[in-house]
Amino acid sequence: MSEKLARERHRRRGAIAARLLDAAPDAAAALDWDALDRGPAWLAAPDTDLALEQRRIGAALNAAAIRLWIDRRSLAAARSAVGDAFLRALLADSSVRETACHSVVENSATTGDGLSDVAEWLRRCGAAVQAAAISDTPLGQAAAIALCGCTGALQLPAEAARDVIEQATRAGATLAAVKEPER
Fold first, then answer.
1. 3 state SS of 154
2. Is the dihedral of CA 144, 109, 159, 90 positive or negative?
3. 146 CB-contact burial (10 Å; exposed 0-12 / middle 13-18 / buried 19+)
4. How far is residue 19 from each of residues 12, 15, 74, measured CA to CA in Å?
5. What is the distance between the alpha carbons of residues 97 and 8, in angstroms, rounded to a whole number?
6. Cβ atoms within 10 Å, residue 28
7. How many angstroms separate the CA atoms of 16 and 1, rounded?
8. Confidence (pTM)
9. What is the CA radius of gyration of the chain?
């Protein structure tokens, strides 16, 4: 392995370990280096990047419902949270289907000030999908606690959760450049 790859592996492993040890020290203590090495790249992402990805995954999970929204304020909040171009690409993708699951992530998008509520709801939904996507791995429990504050926040099989993440990735890939939304 080249020195550059070794440094990147060490950085990624360290970022994942730090996130898990900070949020779920007991669950993280049971992990070994191999489990950290097999962790998804998003688990090592900086907090702002992770939050944007979570909001986008949350939008993919709820695309069918968002298509039905008529409240301009909620739609504007969703666009602000994930980026207008991303939301347009996601909602235009005819292959995005409603995911058959029952989320225990409460929809608070209709309470409070709207903008932050929609963004936080999308982020929590995305975090729950990410946790479900790796629930069948050694990192699963620690990541669920780190991302959601609990385990089992979303009753969704790991494979279905990975499909939702792929939908979000596909929506982002259809754009020439997806800019991070202004906050």
1. strand
2. negative
3. buried
4. 11, 6, 31
5. 36
6. 23
7. 21
8. 0.83
9. 17
Which own/partner pairs from 41-45 qualify as long-range (CB within 8 Å, at least 24 positions apart)?
A: 41/12, 42/130, 43/15, 43/16, 43/19, 43/130, 43/134, 43/139, 43/143, 44/11, 44/12, 44/13, 44/15, 44/16, 44/19, 45/15
Residues 150-166 as b or e (16 or more Cβ within 10 Å = b):
eeebbebeeebbbbbbe
pLDDT in tens, 86-126: 999 998 887 766 554 444 444 444 444 555 699 999 999 99
User: Within the chain, which residues score under 50 in pLDDT?
Assistant: 100-112, 176-180, 183
> Which residues are paired to 103 by β-bridges?
154
Residue 164 contacts residue 115 (beta carbons within 8 Å): no
- What does the block give as tokens for 8? 């990147």
Residue ranges with strand state E in the chain: 102-103, 154-155
Place of tokens 């279905």: 160
Q: At what angle do helices 84-92 and 47-61 cross, to 10 degrees?
A: 30
Q: If we measure between CA atoms, which residue out of 167, 182, 137, 144 comes closest to residue 59?
A: 167
Around Cβ 12, how many Cβ atoms within 10 Å? 17
